Amino acid sequence: MSPDVPLLNDYKQDFFLKRFPQTVLGGPRLKLGYCAPPYIYVNQIVLFLMPWVLGGIGTLLYQLGILEDYYAAALSGGLMLFTAFVIQFTSSYARNKSVTVERMLTTDILAEEDEHEFTDCAGAETIKFLIPGKKHTANVVFHSVLAGLLCGLGTWYLLPNRITLLYGSVGGTVVLFVFGWMTLCIGEYSLIVNTPTESATFQTQDAYEITPLMRPVYIFFFVSVDLAHRFMVNIPALEQMNQILHILFIFLPFFWALGTLPPPDALFLWAVEQVLEFGLGGSSMSTHLRLLIMFIISAGTAVASYFIPSTVGVVLFMTGLGFLLSLNLSEMVLVFKHGVTRHRVGTKSNALSSGSEILFTWREYLFYSIVLVLALLETGLLHHFASFSQISKNSPQAVVGYTLMILFIILWILKEIQSVYIFGIFRNPFYPKDVQTVTLFLEKQTKLMKIGVVRRILINLVSPFAMIAFLSLDSSLQRLHSVSVSIGFTRAFRMVWQNTETALLETVIVAAVHLLSSSADMWWSRSLDTGIKLLLGLELQETSCHTAEARRVDEVFESAFEQEEYVKLCSINEHFGNVLTPCTVLPVKLYSDARNVLSGIIDSHDNLKEFKGDLVKVLLWILVQYCSRRSGMLENAHKTENKGKSSLIILPALNTEPQTESPEDTDSLNSENLDDWSDDVFDEEPTIKKGKDEKDQLKVLPGINLPIPGSVESQDIGSHSTNTVTEESLYQAVALGYPAIDKGKQEAMAYIPLMEFSCSHSHLLSLPEEWMSNCLPKSKVKEMSSLFPEDWYQFILRQLECFPSKENASNVEEIAKDRVLKDLYVHTVMTCYFSLFGVDNMIPSPGHILRVYSGVLPWSLALDWLTEKPDLFQLALKAFRYTLKLMIDKASLGPVEDFKELINCLEEYESDWYIGLVSDEKWKEAVLQEKPYLFSLGYDPNMGVYTGRVLTLQELLIHVGKLNAEAVRGQWANLSWELLYATNDDEERYSIQAHPLLLRNLTVQAADPPLGYPIYSSKPLHIHLV
Q1: Which of 259, 574, 596, 907 is the most core-located residue (most Cβ within 10 A)?
Q2: Among 619, 566, 636, residue whose Cα is nearest residue 796
């Protein structure tokens, strides 16, 4: 930090010297940055002193004995009301009369935005400058009436005779009268003439014109105390308060200017929050609406307890409501409604996940219910059967008090043992010294973890029930219809659960005071924590200030957690005075991001050639795994229907009479000029140009070529059917498509024979019925069937575990010999294989690999057949991605030795990897599910290379520390004043210069926008303690 950096630069100093006097005086702009006519200053002085003149008329008539004090106040208030309406109507008339004048451009922008052109003393521009007016018509009436009331009550408040009666001094009366009227004039000017910029700003935009009410609100408060003193005599405390407030009244302008007193909207919310926390035992709320709702409920609880006639009923009511109000009811209700909604409308795919979430929620509800019932039983039984007497050394309440004291000491010791520093000064000898590795740290922290579990049980379960016992035995509860009991014990029974540690400290203090003074009356007051944490992320770009403070943060943590073994056991904290205090180290799961260039792998001819062979194997393995899992889900549903019956399936005829390939088929399969799909490797994000998402268009009927319904040919459909097959199973639809196929060559695909499995267990691995349709010529299917790996198919079946263990071997052998089942897999696997590589059965190019990996398939006869089956399409795409990952692993780690190693590799992909695109929604889900590894393929157009991105989940040790709360609040308060009032947004201003002790730059950056600029700000995180 440079010592020459000023608090405000030269321009902001001039700006501040103009704005601050305006704030002190309540709005008059007596210091301008340019030369203005004298009448501008004279008019402002006249408007400023107008309330004093009008109030002086009433004061003079009262002092002369012409009018009573209240009549004099009413006269002054009426005159001020009339004057306020005249001022507002004059401003409105000037705004309507003025016209827009185009000014000449000047080079001095700063002077231009602050200058005004005045023509005469009562001109429209002059009036608009002096009296800007109100935004809303309602405020014109409301503020004018308020100004009249303020002037009348102010006249009554500052009557000289009244001040003399309070102090008995003429000199004091003169001082208070003169400066008191100055305060009133400041309040009136800001209300009806021109509102200054307040140094205490709660909202950046004042849409409802609340800021003009700030100063009158505090004046009314001072006047209200004087009125109470007038009508409630013989109260010495009230008289003393009135005397003190009369003196403070003349200092109100300085309190307003220095930002000591908050605006009325902030004052109201702050007062409600303080009453909720200190008086009713609640905690801070995250929104204004929640604050008001919780305040009303908490106040209603205290009021309701006042009218309960039974002491047992009062205790049970306070205990139950205290426990319920300490819970986050809004979150629990939302989770419950969300779980019920998902349970009602959820699909089979998300049944398991939603079920587990609902199970967890019900477990939490059950725990809360049990704790509530036990607390009510304990409170009711103790209060009903125990004897009540003043606390003494041998009374039941005293015994519980001693127990609480011992429990408090134990919890304090256990808390300090778990922290790295005791009292923030001495290093904890039980805390691990070297915590650089996760494994070593977890081994050394095992004992501390056990201590933490014991402490958590004592805090969450033992301490609340012990404090409930102490409260239930208090003799003060015998006094019904007592305000102190209703408020004090309602707060106490709630704080037992809301903030157990704070409540335990307060209960111990109360017990000690009871034992020492034998006094049963005690007021409970203690602030609470919110229980809601917020994660902030700082900007990525480091500056010199960031570097200096970040270096100090590293030093603070290193001195605490990275010590040598030979260092003495109880060392001193070298950074005791720093705003940051180290607490502990937590192992956190994070993803490491590695990006690799795949040049030499994805463009290798040998690798791409092996890729085609591996794709068939991976695709077959994925389909078999899918069908085996699917059969387990459907087995119970079909057990009764299929019992004693043989399985009939619709199977494409693979082994029929040979047929020569038609010229149309050959031409369409070898076509090179396709507009739907291009192999431009320089497109990083390939897209499908048509066909996939066009839901309103008719597509090619998958697997069946039928005549148009209603024609003569449609009468022949039933001739190829049996009694067990209906017309619906033949997928009746309009057969349209591209390219056109000769009608004479269609007959070989139209006939679908009915065949049955030779093994009774083959239905466990049968493919879905909608996948059995045909879309390719028989010649093409027969040609590709030679690529089917028979030995790999047999090996996969022998690895299955979907059969009973005793019959596994025999069942697998029978299924492996089932020719029908094998032909079914040959047809489905090879059709998917054909659709992934398109019309060219050549070695794929790297661009082809990238496009298909991204979900963009080339055009082929099987494209529509595959895309119309979403499940099969996703399985084929998954197999393609697995094969690519397998190709990269084989090129990097070496070839796969045998089938067993290949299955182990695929099972690892299935369980530990997510292989897809970064832009996929499932990528985000995999990160949230903490998948160990994530892989994505990409292309860098700048370098012209293909890249692979791998995320690896690993545990790292994260240092956790706490900042001094008051230091942070002070810096943020100064930041608000500096940016909103002084408008000092200089990037090199003094307040954001590096300060290693206060961490000023980092703290300022972490403030909420728009004051701060964190790169990331999380939603409130609810931390469950159960």
Answers
A1: 259
A2: 619
Evaluate whether 157 touches 218 at the Cβ level (below 8 Å): no
Q: What's 845's DSSP letter?
A: P
Please determine, for residue 479, whether its predicted confidence score (pLDDT) is greater than 80. no
pLDDT more than 70, % of the chain: 74
- What is the distance between the terminal CA atoms of the chain, rounded to a whole angstrom? 47
What would the two tokens of residue 633 be? 């889900």
User: Distance from CA of residue 234 to its chain's centroid?
Assistant: 56
Measured CA to CA, the distance from residue 973 to residue 769 in angstroms comes to 69
Chain centroid to CA 529: how far?
A: 19
| Mean pLDDT across the chain | 76
pTM, entire model = 0.65
What b/e sequence results for 127-143 when a residue is b if at least 16 CB atoms lie within 10 Å of its CB, and e otherwise? Answer: bbbbbebbeeeebbeeb
What is the torsional sign of CA 797, 803, 809, 812? Answer: negative
Instruction: Output the DSSP codes for 339-354.
Output: HHHHHHH--GGGHHHH
Please report which confidence band the pLDDT of residue 233 belongs to, taking 50, 70 and 90 as the band edges: confident
Lowest mean pLDDT among 168-177, 196-205, 438-447, 850-859: 438-447
Long-range residue pairs from 1012-1016, CB within 8 A, at least 24 positions apart, any chain: 1012/975, 1013/539, 1014/536, 1014/537, 1014/538, 1014/539, 1015/537, 1015/538, 1015/539, 1015/540, 1016/535, 1016/536, 1016/537
- The single residue listed with the structure tokens 């200190």 is 278
Which residues fall within 8 angstroms of residue 532, CB to CB, at 6 or more apart? 286, 1020, 1021, 1022, 1023
Which tokens belong to 852? 């298909």
| 716 token code pair | 């022949």
Helix (H/G/I), strand (E/B), else coil: 856: coil
715 in Cβ contact with 705 (< 8 Å) = no
Using one digit for the tens of pLDDT, what is the confidence trace for 155-214?
Answer: 999 999 989 999 988 999 999 999 999 999 999 999 999 999 888 877 777 888 899 999
**Segment 413-416 long-range contacts (CB within 8 Å, at least 24 positions apart):** 414/451, 414/452, 414/454, 414/455, 414/458, 415/455
Rounded distance, CA 87 to CA 131, Å?
8
Phi-psi region of 644 (alpha: psi -120 to 50; beta: other; left: phi over 0): left
**What per-residue confidence (pLDDT) applies to 279?**
87
Cis peptide bond prior to 263, omega within 30° of 0: no
pLDDT tens digits, one per residue of 339-375: 666 555 544 434 334 433 444 467 778 888 899 999 9
Q: With beta carbons less than 8 A apart as the criterion, state whether 589 and 927 touch.
A: no
What average pLDDT does this structure show over 851-866? 86
**Predicted confidence band of residue 2 (pLDDT cuts 50, 70, 90):** low
What would you measure as the largest C-alpha separation in the chain, in angstroms?
130
- Strand 945-963 versus strand 933-940 pairing type: antiparallel
Q: Where are the beta strands (DSSP E) in 505-613?
A: 532-533, 536-537, 580-597
Q: How far apart are CA 326 and CA 1009, in angstroms?
A: 30
d(CA 739, CA 170): 110
**What kind and span of H or E run contains 802?**
none
Distances (CA, A) of 623 to 628, 835, 853, 896: 9, 16, 18, 21
Q: Among 261-270, 370-379, 403-412, 727-736, whose mean pLDDT is lowest? A: 727-736
Sequence letter at residue 395: S
DSSP secondary structure, 987-1019, as one string: TT-GGGS--TTTTHHHHHHTSPTTTS--SEEPP
CA dist 232 to 7, 227, 229, 237, Å?
Answer: 51, 8, 5, 11
Percentage above 90 pLDDT, the chain: 25
Cis peptide bond prior to 1009, omega within 30° of 0: no
Confidence at 106, pLDDT banded by 50, 70, 90: very low
Q: Using CA atoms of 497, 500, 505, 510 in order, give the dihedral in degrees to the nearest 10.
A: 10
